[in-house]
Structure formats: structure tokens, C-alpha cells
Amino acid sequence: MWCEMGSDTVAISVKGLGKKYTLSGPQEKYLTFRDAIVNSVKAPFRRLSSHESSPEFWALKDVSFDVEQGEVVGIIGRNGAGKSTLLKVLSRITSPTEGTVDIYGRVGSLLEVGTGFHPELTGRENIFLSGSILGMKHREIDARLDEIVKFSEIEKFLDTPVKRYSSGMYVRLAFAVAAHMDTEILLVDEVLAVGDVQFQKKCMGKMGDVAAKEGRTVLFVSHNMSMISSLCKKGILLEQGKIRFNGPIEDAINTYLNSDQIGNGEVIFNGHPPGDEKAILRAARVVGVNGSPTVNVQINEPFFIEIEYELFNEGMRVYPNLHIKDSFGQYVFVTTDSLFDKDSSKKLKAQRYISRCKIPENLLNAGTFYFGVALTSVYPLNVHFYEHDLLFITIHDPLEGIPTRGEGYSGPMPGPVRPVLEWDLISTA
Questions:
Q1: 321-356 burial code (b ≥16 CB/10 A, e <16)
Q2: Same domain for 290 and 198?
Q3: Which of 144, 151, 147, 186 is nearest to 171 (CA)?
Q4: pLDDT bucket at 46, cuts 50 / 70 / 90
Q5: How do beta strands 279-287 and 266-268 pair?
Q6: Is residue 429 part of a domain?
């Protein structure tokens, strides 16, 4: 259950929070307050009969923590740890199965792209709708309109329905609204990764300002450890729906990065695979030179990333791609299969495929790297799935016995990549 009341120091208090999902059968539907305003004839909640035979999954279990007013807290953890579910519960997008959530103040949230705004309304209309839901008067919203529009940089499209916005434009406006409205608590999910680098920096600066100068509370979910460490003082590490660590952010990051890497290099999706009506992700794996899934390779050995997916439409032009990050969440590079650029006449049938990418030896440096997998199509551009940091690999360098290291460099070598490049010796004598 939720509760709102006054508090001198606490902004959020969570006690014994649990969220259970049913993995098959009819799924519970939720109607946001925004939809209720625009279309009041729809019922806000639907009760469903219980399905005792359906398997259950606890996305959150026995989660308890307090967040002080003005604190900036980073929520970190692997994919499926429960981070996004936690923010959805705090934002009242979904209801808890058990436990209590006490919110001391109004909440502004920026979660998945596509939530929060009504698609048929213009950017301007959505700004006023968002403020009205927070209880702000028309003149109060109007006083902040110029600042919101300037920050979002979408002046030319302010009177265009947001359903025509690109994902980047949507995030710009959504963040500007959440950050500039009259709220005491700001919840931000990984959605900022959609924006360009300069806008990310702008958002980071704004989140720092709303906490330091305005005394507002910020909860920030991200896989980018450099962003988390620069913005947050406190961290909550989630693992399989439970809190593993709650304390200083550097200790939280160290616990996260040094935690045991459990797995055999393969992730298989059965019940609810990521994707949409056109394509879904069935599995992904890291494959070593022996042909088996692995999480460890030698630096002088190649390895492969396999993305197994299923297409449901005939004649699709799809682009599997990998997003490679280092252990601090910094991008190393992104690569995509350009098959259709090479053969524009090629069309794929509706069936399962495996796209395999070879990572050559002596490219990535020693250390742990994370691989996000995605599938896009063109005409029009669609992102069918994107799973952040789904796979990982630890690359080992024995420091000696590797001829490509050379005898002129000993000890650890800096940087995320360590390619073997061609050198020429030219005599000037």
C-alpha cells in the first residue's frame, strides 16, 4: 500500500516491499491518472480472477529502505534485478503485492520512453496536463513553460502531437517536464541513455542542481557507473529482487563490480522474451573457440557473441547490434551487422535466426566487459528489443607468454581496447 504524510527528514520509506508477477495467463492492466483524465470512461483498475496454476515470479521481495530529503541515490544491479520495477512502484504505475511505501512529497518520474505523456496531445498540451495532475495552477505551469521548452530544445515541435516525436525528442521533453515541475521527488530510469551525450550531461547537471540547490530527492537508475558515482552519494544494490547493499555509493559500486559473476555465458528466454509483435529475443550467448558458452577467455583468443531471435513478419530488413561497455559502464564501441547494406535485395523469412559476431583476439584489453544486444529494422525505424548488459566476458592476460604484448611493455596496459596494429620501420639514413 502507499501512504503520503508529512515528515521532517524522510522523503521515501519502503518497508517489506514485494511485487509478484504471474508468468502466464491474463496479465493485470493498469490505467494511469493521465489516461483517466483524457478518457474518463475507462475503468482505472481491472480485477482479475486468480490463476493458481500459473507460475509466479517475485520481481521484488522483502525490500526495505529509507531515503532522506535532498539525497541523491543510485539504484544499481544487473538486468532483472528489480530496479525498474522498484521505480514503477514508487511512481504508482504498478501496485505492490505486499509491504508499504510511504511517499512524503509529490513525485516526478521519467521511466520508459512512451509512458507519462498522452500520444494524441501536443507537447504543449502534455506540459499543462502533467502540471495539472501535480495540482499546479495554470498560471504556475505557464510561468515555467519557457524554461521547460528551452531546456528540452524542441521549440519547433511544441505544438506537434508527441506520437510523432522521435525517442530522443520525447526524452528531452519528458525530462524537462519532470525536472522543472513542482515536485519534491524525482525518479529517473535508464531512459536517459536514449539522448545524445551533450543532453545527458545537461540532464546530469540539472539533477545535481535540483538536489543541491532545491533540496529535492533524486533516485537514479543507470548501468553507467561513472554517471552514478559522479551524481550520487548513496547507492542501493539490488540482486534478484532483494537488496544486497545499501550505503555509500563507492562501496555499492565496488560490491556490484566485484560480485561473483554467476552464469555460463548463455541467457535463454522462455516465458516472456523481450521484443514486440514483429521480433523477439530468444537467447544470447558468448561462445569460445571450442564452441561452448563461456565467461572467460584469454586475450589472444577470439570469441563470438550470438544473438538468437525470431521474426514474425515476412521480408524484414533487420540489423542485429552489440553495445560493448567496460566495467564502469562506459561505452567501448557499438557494432551492427550491415548485411542489408551489402545486399539491399535480401529479404528474411518469418523464422528463427542466429546472428553471430566475432570479437577478434587482441582487441579488447584485459578485464570484464558487458554486451547489450539489440535488434532494429528500417523503413520505418523500429527498435524491437534492446537488453542492456545482458552478457559479460572476462578477458585474461597472463602478462607473459603472449607474443603480441611485446617485451617493451610490462604490467597492466591502460584503456578498454588493446588492438594489434601494423607498424613500419622507415630508415631516414
A1: bbbbbbbbbeebeeebbeebeeeeeeebeeeebebe
A2: no
A3: 151
A4: very low
A5: antiparallel
A6: no
As given in the structure block, the three cell numbers for residue 63 are 525490500
Asked whether 109 and 178 are in contact (CB, 8 A), the reply is yes
Residue 261 confidence class, pLDDT cut points 50, 70, 90:
low
Q: What whole-number distance in Å separates Cα of residue 319 and Cα of residue 323? A: 13
Place of cell 557499438: 334
Peptide bond into 380 cis (omega under 30): yes
Which set of grid coordinates corresponds to residue 115?
Answer: 509512458
- Whether 406 is in a domain gets the answer no
> pLDDT at position 38, please?
52
Cα–Cα distance for residue pair 220/392, rounded to 1 Å: 23
Set of cell numbers at residue 393: 566476458
- For residue 305, the domain's CATH number is 2.70.50.60
Examine residue 416 and state whether it is found in any structural domain, yes or no.
no
203 shares its domain with 136: yes
> Residue 186 falls within a domain, yes or no?
yes
**Residue 242 shares a structural domain with residue 274:** no
Instruction: Indicate yes or no: pTM above 0.90.
Output: no
Buried/exposed code over 262-273 (b: 16+ C-beta within 10 A; e: otherwise): eeebbbebeeeb
Residues 185 and 295 in one domain: no
Cell digits of residue 375: 535488434
Q: 350 lies in which domain range?
A: 266-398
pLDDT at 111: 76
- Residue 267: partners with Cβ closer than 8 Å, 6 or more residues away: 283, 284, 285, 390, 391
Predicted local distance difference test score (pLDDT) of residue 44 = 44
183 and 278 belong to one structural domain: no
Identify the CATH number of the domain in which residue 103 sits: 3.40.50.300
- For 215-244, b/e burial (b = at least 16 CB within 10 A) is ebbbbbbbbbbebbbebbebbbbbbebbbb
Angle, helix 123-133 to helix 138-152, in steps of 10 degrees: 130
Provide the pLDDT for residue 26: 44
Contact by Cβ (8 Å): 279, 384: yes
Number of domains in the chain: 2
Q: Is the dihedral of CA 413, 414, 419, 425 positive or negative?
A: negative
pLDDT digits (tens, 9 = 90+) for 202-233: 888 888 888 888 889 999 998 777 788 888 99
